[in-house]
Amino acid sequence: MQSSNHTISYGRHIRALSVLGIPIIVGQLGSIIQGLADTIMVGRFNAESLASAGFVNNIMILVLVFALGYSYAITPVIGPMHARGEFHEAGKALHAGVYANGTLGLLLFLLMGILYFFLGHMGQPEELLPIIRPYYIVVLISIPFQSVFNAFKQFFDGIGNTRTPMWIMISANLLNILGNWLLIYGIGPFPRLGLLGAGLSTTLSRIFMLAMIYGIFLYGNTYKKYHSGFRSSEGISVLRQRLHRLGTPIGLQMGMETASFSLTAVMQGWIGAAPLAAHQIMTNVGSTCFMIYYGIGAAVAIRVSHFHGVGDTANVRRSALTGYLMILLTGLTLSGLIGTHITDICNLFTDDAEIRRITVSLIIPFVLYQFGDGLQTNFGNALRGIADVKPLMRYAFLCYIAVSLPLSYLLGFTLHGESAGIWMAFPVALTLAGALFCLRFFKQTRQPPGCPHSALSSDRPTKQAH
After folding, report:
1. Is 386 exposed, middle or buried, given 0-12, 13-18 or 19+ CB atoms closer than 10 A?
2. Of 104, 256, 287, 415, which has the fewest beta carbons less than 10 angstroms from its beta carbon?
3. 386: nearest Cα among 433, 437, 339, 341
């Protein structure tokens, strides 16, 4: 980014966001494809495994999304350093990020390990527990590896290299699909493990991702300028504290958003195995849309952090607005396609008529919440780019916990809306969150009269963002 003495056109912002965002989208869709592959292959194995996968994945996603959100603190720290040419400092920030995220991964591993002993007391169908327990343990092992990978990925994203993580994630997903085929169905000399095989394959693919991204950072010539900082321990504790202050609110915001989906999976299990399986199918479909929005939103965070690093307020705001317009157009397109082909989508996952019927009933709340999901994704990332993340935690608690969960229970059980009623809370909660994030962002980036680029001035003038 060259020095900006004028507001960059929307066309240039669209091109820049596309260059950064498309690799992120492809990589994140690869992660979703991993989940879809697990769900489709397990669903074809039997309906009990599909329901069990839905329960475990909706529990695990809470900690995995929290860990991912926690790692997002790295981008607004490294992005401005990279924009100013402070490569040694960026390497130190990565060192701090790996330490902080690795520690978090181990803590989450221990907490979820304790939860294992309470799986039988969560109101799920008794016949699913022998399938749920071994799958839970295997996926649990992958959490620390995923957490450290997240730190490296956010570093690569923060310096504007979004393609390398994309290729790593695609490779890992291909490995996972192959592992699923061999271990779920017992191809050749491999044992027929069903859902447990899918868990083993997922864990191995996450270990592979970490090994690949660390090897590229260690041996790639492009990254040697960061190595001295990465090996340094000077000032690391201060950077760790800064990342913790930024990462915790982001992680909690994303974790509470995910909780509004994952805890409703528990509610679906109260109704029965078929609603739980249908919830799993539509959650996978919804996650696909979200990851596309997230790819654009992550590109917004990167661009905003670079402009923020050099105090260019006008382009901070225009980057965010351009990102939302791109997300809105994408959301309208995806909603139309999914709504039109929902029956065909159901057929990919299962032949069970009851599961298909319930899945189709969820399409109306699904379409309605896309507007709010795009809004909160974009402006949540924009706030991350300017490192204004503490309010996200308060807004998330209000929208995703205080509003969404009670409303799901009210509409689903008290008013007898069942599965579709539970889902109708999502459009309300996500739109409210998006509106609050948007208002906060534009309040924080308000420009003083006659001073178009100074409202977000960086702490010291150095090289211009690029």
Report:
1. buried
2. 415
3. 437
Alpha-carbon distance 68 to 251, whole Å?
A: 7
Backbone angles phi, psi at 140, to 5 degrees: -55, -40
Under 8 Å between Cβ of 359 and 346:
yes
DSSP per-residue letters across 10-45? HHHHHHHHHHHHHHHHHHHHHHHHHHHHHHHHHHHH
User: How many secondary structure helices (H) and strands (E) does the chain include?
Assistant: 19, 0
Torsional sign, CA 247, 248, 249, 254: positive
Q: pLDDT per residue over 81-100, tens digit each?
A: 887 888 999 999 999 999 99
Single out the residue of 3, 12, 9, 28 nearest to residue 296, CA to CA: 28
What single-letter amino acid sits at 165? P
Q: Which of 282, 382, 292 has its CA nearest to residue 333?
A: 292
Encoded tokens for 253? 């915001």
Short-list 153, 157, 165, CA closest to 20: 157
Quick check: 93 and 74 in contact, CB under 8 A? yes
CA dist 392 and 301 (Å) reads: 15
3-state helix, strand, coil in the chain (%, to 5): 85, 0, 15
The Cβ of residue 360 has, within 10 Å, a number of other Cβ atoms equal to 16
pTM above 0.70, yes or no: yes
Residues in the chain: 466
Report d(CA 314, CA 292) in Å as an integer. Answer: 26
Residues contacting 246, CB < 8 A, separation 6+: 73, 76, 77, 387, 389
pLDDT tens for residues 108-156?
999 999 998 888 777 777 778 888 889 999 999 999 999 999 999 999 9
Distance of alpha carbon 141 from alpha carbon 125, whole angstroms = 25
Six-digit token string for 257: 């958003």
What is the rounded distance in angstroms from the CA atom of residue 291 to the CA atom of residue 297?
9
